Amino acid sequence: MDVNKILVPTDFSDDSDQAIRWGASLAEKYGALMLLLHVIPPALEEASTHGSASEEIIMELEAKVEARLYEIALMDLDDTRPVTVKIAVGKPTEEILRVAGEEAVDLIVMGTHGHSGLAHALILGGTAETVVRTAPCPVFTVRADPVDTP
After folding, report:
1. 111 in helix, strand or coil?
2. How far is residue 51 CA from its own chain's centroid?
3. Would you say residue 149 lies in a domain?
4. At 47, which CATH number?
5. Which residues in 16-26 are b (16+ Cβ under 10 Å) and which e?
6. DSSP H or E segment with residue 89
7. Which has the closest alpha carbon to 8: 40, 128, 118, 19?
8. Which residues of 68-105 are buried (b: 16+ CB within 10 A; e: fewer)?
9. Residue 69 in contact with residue 87, Cβ under 8 Å?
10. Which of 7, 5, 29 is nearest to 110 (CA)?
């Protein structure tokens, strides 16, 4: 089985940080491209259309997210591994699945719980669970607290 492109969605939580480390390790093992993705929730877009948040604030947020993704790609990861970054606006599950399909990724590596936490996962199903059930490729899920790291 070839693994040429690995999608690693991040919300900058501890679980996402652990998933990034696993994604980087797997990308190195397979010689794969790692694609870091952050999804900005649609509530910010809606707020800007209702005047409570300006377009400038959203652009500033996107710039900060992009800078953080590049910081991870350039500083936190081994610079010999190809990494690209992408930002999407929308519902995280939908955007992760859309990007996975559009980018023809071979593997998704993601945290089991992001900032929404366990209560969200138990009540609403959780992003990771939905991605696992509906992704066009295998999904490798990661907890923030495993004893062993790659």
Report:
1. strand
2. 29
3. no
4. 3.40.50.620
5. bbbbbbbbbbb
6. strand 83-89
7. 19
8. ebeebbeeebeeebebebbbbeeebbebbbebbeeeeb
9. yes
10. 7
Half-sphere exposure in the Cβ direction for 85 (13 Å, CA) = 18
Q: How far apart are CA 126 and CA 74, in angstroms?
A: 30
Domain extent for 66: 5-108+131-142
| Count of domains forming the chain | 1
In Å, how far are 32, 41, 72, 81, 114 from 98, measured between CA atoms?
Answer: 20, 15, 23, 24, 19
Find where tokens 């945290």 sit.
Answer: 111
pLDDT, position 27: 92
- Is residue 104 a part of any domain in this protein? yes
Q: How far apart are the C-alpha atoms of 18 and 8, rounded to whole Å?
A: 10
Q: What is the pLDDT of residue 147?
A: 52
- pLDDT tens for 83-124 read 899 999 889 999 999 999 999 999 999 998 655 544 444 333
Does a structural domain hold residue 117?
Answer: no
Report if residue 122 sits inside a domain.
no
What is the per-residue pLDDT across 26-55, written as a single tens digit (0 to 9) for each?
998 999 999 999 998 876 655 555 555 567
